[in-house]
Design brief:
By secondary structure, the chain is mainly α. It has one domain: Arc Repressor Mutant, subunit A (Orthogonal Bundle), CATH 1.10.10.10. It is built from 8 helices and 3 strands; from the N terminus they run H-H-H-E-H-H-E-E-H-H-H. It has a 3-stranded antiparallel β-sheet.
Length: 119
Amino acid sequence: MASLLTDARTHRYGFSRAVRPAVPGWQSQLRCLEDGPRRFTELRGPLRRVTPKVLTQSLRGLERDGLVSRTVHNAPELRVEYALTPLGRSMLEPLAAACAWAAEHWDELLDAREAYKSP
């Protein structure tokens, strides 16, 4: 029964949506959290091209997808930390493999883009 449900979900949402969260820049955000929890302001440094509004929306999306957890600490001052969940951590290896593949085939990808003639 679980397999049937999984097949139905995969069909409904599609494989690409399952492996690509609907969040801009999600790969960079996961990589920024791989060494441990970070505060929002600590994420802003390496992700400086992302506006605070978009970063907040992205982190909420990753939290919704179960890839990131959000913890609010009240003492001594209010602060929020984001961390990878076990599910999010499990994405790091495939993400590294995809990055290695892209680096290995970068010239081919650029050649294909240059040769492409839009319809």
